[in-house]
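Structure, all two chains, one model.
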Amino acid sequence: MFHRRVFLGAMAGLPMLAAASLAHAQLAPDAAKAFIDQSGQKLVSVVNSGASTSDKADQLRQLVDQIVAVDQVGDYVLGRYKGVATPDQHTQFLAEFHQLLSYNITYQIKAYTGIGFTVNGASAMGDDTIVDTTITRPNQPPVDVGWAVDQVDGSPKIVDVIVAGTSLRITTRNDYASVITSNGGQVSALLSAMQSQIDRIKSNQ
Amino acid sequence: MLKLIHLPANKAKSRRKQRRFTSIAAPASLILAGLLSACATPPPQSDTADYQAYVQQDDPIEPTNRVFYNVNDKIDRYAFKPIAKGYVAITNQTIRNHVGDFVTNIQEPGRLVYFMFGGKPRDAGTSLVRFMVNSTVGVGGIFDPATALGYPETDTDFGLTLAEWGVPAGPYIYLPVFGPSGARDIFSIPAQFFLTPVEVAPASEALRIFNYSETALHLVNTRAQFLDPIDQIQATALDPYATFRSLYRQERASQLQLIDQRDTPTIPDWYAPAH
């Protein structure tokens, strides 16, 4: 029953995320809304195009590179282990995280057709601006998705995705921390697990 | 059995329900007691990053929880998921929405009680209005006109009532069959067995069949709703157990926030002071 809970962007964990954010000026809600609207329309045009699944996946990965602050999200996800990882491990982590994030985001969406994307509103939350949207798909219930947008290197970028009050970056952080703690605190274990996952995804494509 | 026949109808039903609950709870308790000794070993406190992660996870019986997670995963893979896929194949989203509305409506009186005990009068009022409107205008709960009238569903359970009383979530517990829970939320399970309108209806064979059918339909309909998200997590997470644990905790915190957010009293238009 716990899965049925309302799809609202009531972001329980976001206040504590503020500490991890970089020093910057907060993005105005209208600017964040315009950015998400534009990004969403690009996403919809790729997903609803008649291109093959692999072509759509390639285009979606390019889009992810443009609109998501992958390095910042990666550092947040690595969390306290960023101080434990060596510089080489950190570089390797960001490279693998970049690949995995792209694969994970495109995992199912590349097979979809007929999706709709509506921007509902935006509000400031901590250091981020949350843009609330609704995504529709034929024969599926609509899903409310919150996009946390931040100013990164002078331009707006997505730093988190929130569905039903659950944050993608917090969930991924807990997932990765579990792999490290299960392996005696070794960051190398996380890097191996990530590489295995990438190899598995590539072999399934 | 003979004794049950001579009991008043509601007592006989209560006994049957108690027995049904005991038949699930007793073996589960025994298994739990037997496996609780399998606790996670905390990392040394000198290892700050690792120790902080261990404390944050608050999952001291993780090895046992993982055993139950794997059991549930097998049950889901070979039973629930195929049934849910079959259900999706023979229904459309409109039907599934109406099934969801019907089940939600049956649970509404329980929510009313939880909100009252949790000191949430506005949420309790919303539950009451929802149940009255949806049970009548909504044809027994098949439709949800209450949401359109400005009374959206706010989910709750006894675990969240305890949270409103200040009871902390406590360690994470993964239950066989029931799935993710915690030291506080575990009390929701017996509460939801007894806090349903079916409990006050006169006992009959038809009611018993309805009760089982409604539970089964609820399970299948809910599983069908989450076919894609669960597939995605299992395919993309490095540690799906830890991912589900994180999602559960975040979702509970989010629900609590929503309950508080929606319990804001408002002054009705007719009470507006004259200028």
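The beta strands of chain A are 116-125, 128-136, 143-152, 155-163, 166-167.
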